[in-house]
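Please check this protein record:
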Amino acid sequence: MAVVSCSIISCSGNSLSGREKGALGGGVIGSGLGAIVGNQVGSSGAGIAIGGAMGALAGGLIGNESDNVGSAQQGQDERLRRQDEELSRQRRELEELKREKSRDTY
């Protein structure tokens, strides 16, 4: 199941979001752990299903939070870039005013 999901997603050509990557990875890891636990208690199928669902949920939540942090970081980077541009503009303006003032005093 996980191999089929990976194949379908990889052929779509679109990049996966952090939430999608987390859900996929969590589902695979959860299914594996669920199979091990399920085998020990006598119900591998239920263990795989429960482990996969719980892993996908946990991975999706973690990936979503990672996406949110990344988005916030991009916004902050853009604000800093705009502030740097404004500071450069103001420095150029100050230098021009200084040059004009020095020309006026001669």
Summary: Residues 2-105 form one domain. Helices lie at 2-11, 18-41, 44-105. Residues 44-105 form the longest helix (62 residues).
